[in-house]
Design goal:
The chain is of the alpha+beta class. Among the domains are: about 5-100, 2-Layer Sandwich (Uridine Diphospho-n-acetylenolpyruvylglucosamine Reductase, domain 2), CATH 3.30.43; about 105-220, Uridine Diphospho-n-acetylenolpyruvylglucosamine Reductase, domain 3, CATH 3.30.465.10; about 225-330, Alpha-Beta Plaits, CATH 3.30.70. It has 17 helices and 19 strands. The strands form 4 sheets. Strands 12, 13, 14, 15, 16, 17, 18 and 19 form an 8-stranded antiparallel beta sheet that branches. A 5-stranded antiparallel beta sheet has the order 5-6-10-8-9. A 4-stranded mixed beta sheet has the order 1-2-4-3, covered by helices on one side. Strand 8 and strand 9 (about 180-185) form a beta hairpin. The longest helix has 20 residues, at about 5-20. The chain starts with a helix and ends in a 16-residue tail after the last helix.
Length: about 475
């Protein structure tokens, strides 16, 4: 018998052990496998052999022990909202679904922190915290699990003020590839105790271990929240105004961009009637006086750079209406191509380079006759071009991929990154090499090899090409 067939037989025996151990928690139903074969990206699906619905850290430990003994790949799965093929089971094995690990274990109002299981979603935590006057700030848009958000190093609309997952995660409980469980830190707000294991696992995308619990920083719900929008005829002027606001140190909680094409898509999809111009959305947090002062300072800068039709409100219903444009943007673009798959780019550049980079990107889209509305968290230099790959259109996919290559090259040339928040997954491995160089990626490989010598944790992602 060949080595590959022998390995297949070994893995089959191991899956039999998992089935005996977990019973109904383990599924091989076709619909379940299909659901766990892909995320929200354009990357081709790859199905696991089985899906295990873990309900505790002990379940994860027991699963990993069997997978280690039988060399079975393990691919963590939250709710499948990632965008770079993170959850595709490239070599089969077990998709470890964490959605049943959804308990909020502890909330400390005095310390303004909490501990949750990895399957708790962002909105679930928000609903739990709101009566306590607290909130967790990281908002990637989708109702992702907090474990998945840590694994991909997520950020979102509020990063400009509160930081990304790297800044708000205090500690993680992680199951290593050998089945051991570690705590990466204590709950203290700062520490100098050894290597920073917490941030090693944040953004590791399930390739080093499986996060089962997180301790998170919380913030008080602001006394007042003010939302504002302003429109621009000139995109370069809009982004230049954002850069000026950041340089002045105005306390902005969110600064979001929708270019003219994105606004048009949202109007059509969501029944809004926004003027067909480039749009900036702002949010300010603080006391009634401070948010008014910050909004007035921002209005002055926007007017100076040619902004018009400023609209602001502190009313919850009106704020929700204004933010619909941003939250609906990607799905509005996708709706133009029924059955198509999203291809969302994710570069981030120094704020001083943002206006020129976006302007060059707009020119690139026009030159190559590509439909790609631009949205982004422009307060921290991160923007996305939202493209859609029509069903079975390989020529359009290649065209978009070529555009993405040019966009990343442009971002790297000015000191930027190929991914501000989506991660590497299987889609940006080559770009990671371009961005950091072979020596840096070799260090990552050494860490991966030391922690996961059998390469069972989400193989084929981040540092390794192919299947």
């Amino acid at each position: 018998m060949s080595e590959s067939l022998e390995l297949g037989a070994v893995q089959k025996e191991g899956i039999g052990r998992l089935r005996a151990m977990f019973g109904e928690k383990l599924s091989s139903a076709a619909a379940v496998l299909e659901q766990h074969s892909h995320d929200e990206s354009h990357h081709a699906p790859a199905s696991p052999d089985v899906v295990l619905f873990a309900e505790s850290t002990e379940d994860v430990v027991n699963c990993v022990h069997v997978c280690r003994d039988y060399q079975i790949p393990v691919v963590p799965f939250g709710v499948g909202t990632s965008l770079e093929g993170h959850v595709q089971a490239l070599r089969g094995g077990v998709s470890l679904d964490m959605s049943r690990m959804s308990r909020i274990l502890r909330v400390s109002e005095e310390d303004m922190d909490c501990t949750v299981e990895a399957g708790v979603t962002r909105r679930q935590l928000a609903d739990h915290l709101k009566p306590r006057g607290l909130f967790f700030p990281v908002d990637p848009g989708a109702d992702a699990t907090l474990g998945g958000m840590a694994a991909t190093g997520a950020s979102g609309t509020t990063t400009v003020r509160y930081g990304a997952m790297r800044e708000v995660v205090l500690s993680l409980k992680v199951v290593l590839p050998n089945g051991e469980v570690i705590e990466t830190a204590r709950r203290a707000r700062k520490t100098s105790a050894g290597y920073d294991l917490t941030r090693l696992f944040i953004g590791s995308e399930g390739t080093l271990g499986i996060v089962t619990e997180l301790s998170l920083r919380l913030f008080g719900i602001p006394e007042s929240t003010l939302t504002a929008i302003v429109q621009f005829d000139d995109l370069h002027a809009a982004i230049s105004a954002v850069s000026h606001i950041i340089q002045l140190g105005v306390r902005v909680a969110r600064i979001e961009l929708l270019d003219r094409a994105a606004v048009s898509a949202v109007n059509k999809h969501s029944g809004l009637s926004l003027a067909p111009n480039h749009l900036l959305l702002f949010e300010f947090h603080g006391s009634p006086k401070s948010v008014t002062d910050d909004a007035e300072a921002t209005l002055g800068v926007m007017t100076e750079f040619g902004g018009s039709d400023w609209e602001s409100t502190t009313d919850q219903g009106e704020r929700t209406r204004l933010w619909r444009a941003r939250h609906d943007a990607a799905w509005a673009v996708r709706a133009a191509y029924p059955g198509g798959q999203l291809f969302i780019t994710d570069v981030c550049v120094p704020i001083s380079q943002l206006a020129n980079t976006i302007e060059a990107t707009h020119s690139d889209l026009a030159e190559h006759d590509l439909f790609g509305p631009i949205i982004g968290h422009v307060g921290d230099g991160n923007f996305h071009v939202v493209c859609v790959v029509p069903p079975n259109d390989s020529a359009e996919l290649r065209k978009i991929q070529a555009f993405n290559e040019r966009l990343i090259t442009r971002a790297l040339a000015v000191g930027g990154t190929c991914t501000g928040e989506h991660g590497i997954g299987l889609g940006k491995i080559s770009h990671l090499h371009r961005e950091l160089g072979e020596s840096a990626v070799d260090v990552m490989r050494a860490i991966k090899s030391a922690i996961d010598p059998q390469n069972i944790m989400n193989p084929g992602k981040v540092t390794t090409n192919g299947r």
